[in-house]
## 1
Amino acid sequence: MEFVFTINLPSDASSIPFARRIVGSTMGQLGIDPDCVYDVEVAVTEACTNVLKHARGARDEYEVELTIDPKRASIRIKDTGRGWDPASPAGAHEGAPDPHLDLTEEGGRGIMLMRALVDDLEFTSEPEAGTIVHLTKTIVLSDDSPLSRFVDVEVPPV
């Protein structure tokens, strides 16, 4: 059993807290541990912020898809920009700290933060087709979670 929902949001800074709240609220209502919810909320905030900052040539919206099964939460944030070349210096999104990064500055640490908060972070980008940020987090359920009755169900790998 899995729960899936997708929302299309305007490419506007005001959509970021909305995306964070809707993802966090959904996870909370499904009885997921608050620490897991918080980690995902922060990672989603960073991913959405990156979409708004870096999606060159994008339409005026982006998509957030949340999939939750009894073992994991999977979030995909997809923009409609030009994409980027992972081999280029500007596209080198490996999450390694920039040796010139001033850690006292705002910004510039989003990928490192996302990697620290989730179990898996992947970027898929195709020229003229946009970029997908895919976050995966193993979840912990509360005893009274509506998902707990599905824990023994075989979940296919993502």
## 2
Amino acid sequence: MINYQELKKIGLSDKEAKIYLTSLSRGPETAPNLAKISNIVRPTAYVIIDSLIKKGLMSSYDQDKKTLQRNDIEEKEREIEKLIPELKEIANIKGEKPKVRVFEGKEGLKAVIESILNSKTKEIYSFIPLDRMFELFPEKEHSELMTKRRISKKIESKILYTNKKGPVGDESDPKKLRDAVYIPENQFPFRCGIDIYDKNIAMYTYKGKIIGVIIENEDMAETMRSIFKMAWQKYKK
């Protein structure tokens, strides 16, 4: 089993090694959770995570760091190659590893929406707990944030939704490139929102700890798309 000393040989500090091993053993986690589990104060953890991102050992946004000498880089690459089998064993990687991004808070969900609108998708399949979504994003705000921009980009939308007040009046609107179907909440209570687009699945929580997650994996996205289509065929009248 790989240990701190082996990671330090490839240039990681003690705290970098600690957070890295924690992230491998637990899988996708938010920065605050990694800090808490690793018993490292949050500001320090953010700096360490940025360092690991730059070194290509974690995925997230990039930040500038010092440039190493070429011979140091080559030596580190050789050391990393030796450790790859053990790193894969810890992470339990089999085949293609899905790319997972986690976003926190209402601003995080806005970032997820931005990612969808900036993709090349031409159609979005959605499961939506409408009343929960509108509690966090009032209808007018959501229209400005998502609907109007989606229409301007000519992205079609198919929606299966629940709503405590029952079905809404304008479920299907060709002008808004939208086709929606109401699902009785007492039969299928949606607790989070799901968007399926291209080879991605975006998931949202709207209450409690607000979190958005984007999973990039073609097989997973296609399977979720098939599940949506099965439900659509059943409830579309």
